[in-house]
Write a structure and sequence with these properties.
Shape: globular
Number of helices: 11
CATH superfamily: Ribonuclease H-like superfamily/Ribonuclease H
Number of domains: 1
Distance between the termini: 41 Å
Helix content: 40-55%
Strand content: 15-25%
CATH class: Alpha Beta
Strand order of the largest sheet: 5-6-2-1-7-10-9-8
Length: 321
């Protein structure tokens, strides 16, 4: 039975707040290796645009969550699909991070704004999450699809800037985070079952061979296709067959990538809640920010006196790219 692993990120563009990259993996029967899991699991999930009917909403996080829509659908989807397969769910953000980020939340605990005390769920109604989760997991089990396993990597501004300075490229943050997720998935899925990685592609980059080779020592990465519409690689010489497909808008085409997109966005939004709450305590009447260019400048100028008063280096707060 092969493994399907979807990978996507949230927070690559902002100047403020952490970067988050997540993987979501499941094990499927061989005949479902190339199947559309939205169709396979259709009795338990729906895509954005379909009417609300008790099924989980799974899709590109930019369609599941907007500031106008609120966190409810995103939180319900992540908790029901990824968390409630566990015997007990996390009661707060810190517990969620300890579970979802065993290999990577670099520097988060040293961030002045991070407490991890935010109670979960934030806005989702437990009486709705539970039945949706039961329905989803019943369908999943019937179709012999394993429980979905999520891993997240959180890179805070200090580490983000260090990687940028060392490698001279913002893409180093993507490569570093991808390598962490590859190691976590290989360690947690021991055996010789094939693994198919599906990764959302960023910008105009087409060549990922060097990035993969660095993350998979002892292997040989063979490029099968490198075009704007997708880049495909086969990895030889390891304990199992591994393949990688990088493509734009992969979260619209691949179920596991969509869940990874949602997991990344959900965790970043939770962290930004604590980020904004912290700075609002130091700057009265401060409007919250999502951290993206434009508004990030407004927010940073407003908190600059507090940064100086607290003795914080600028690089701890502001990501240079």
């Amino acid at each position: 039975m092969p493994w399907i692993v979807g990978i996507d990120e949230a927070g690559y563009g902002p100047n403020l707040g952490p970067f988050v990259m997540s993987s979501v993996a499941c094990r499927v029967p061989a005949e479902l290796a190339e199947a559309n899991l939205w169709r396979v699991l259709r009795r338990g999930v729906r895509r954005p645009g379909n009417k609300e009917d008790g099924r989980l909403l799974v899709g590109d996080s930019k369609l599941v969550y907007t500031r106008a829509r609120g966190l409810g659908d995103l939180e319900t989807g992540v908790l029901a699909a990824l968390v409630l397969a566990r015997p007990t769910g996390p009661s707060c953000l810190r517990e969620y991070i300890d579970w979802a980020c065993p290999a990577g939340h670099e520097g988060l605990c040293s961030e002045s704004w991070y407490l991890g005390a935010t109670a979960l769920p934030v806005t989702a109604e437990p009486q709705l999450v539970g039945p949706s989760a039961e329905r989803f997991h019943a369908v999943r089990a019937t179709m012999q699809v394993s429980a979905f396993r999520v891993y997240c990597v959180v890179v805070c501004p200090t580490r983000f800037n260090e990687l940028l300075d060392h490698w001279g490229s913002k893409g180093a943050v993507l490569g570093h985070s991808l390598g962490t997720l590859l190691a976590a998935n290989r360690d947690s899925t021991m055996g010789d079952e094939p693994m198919r990685f599906l990764v959302d592609k960023h910008g105009g980059r087409n060549n990922y061979a060097a990035m993969l080779q660095h993350s998979l020592p002892g292997s040989m990465v063979v490029a099968r296709e490198e075009k704007m519409e997708r880049s495909v690689y086969q990895v030889l010489g390891l304990e199992r067959e591994m393949s990688f497909t990088f493509q734009p808008r992969a979260d619209a085409e691949h179920f596991c990538v969509a869940l990874a997109s949602m997991a990344s966005k959900y965790l970043r939004e939770l962290l930004m809640l604590e980020f904004n709450q912290y700075w609002q305590q130091h700057v009265p009447n401060l409007e919250p920010t999502a951290g993206y260019p434009g508004d990030s400048t407004r927010f940073f100028e407003a908190i600059r006196p507090a940064i100086l008063r607290l003795g914080l280096p600028e690089a701890v707060v502001w990501r240079r790219k």
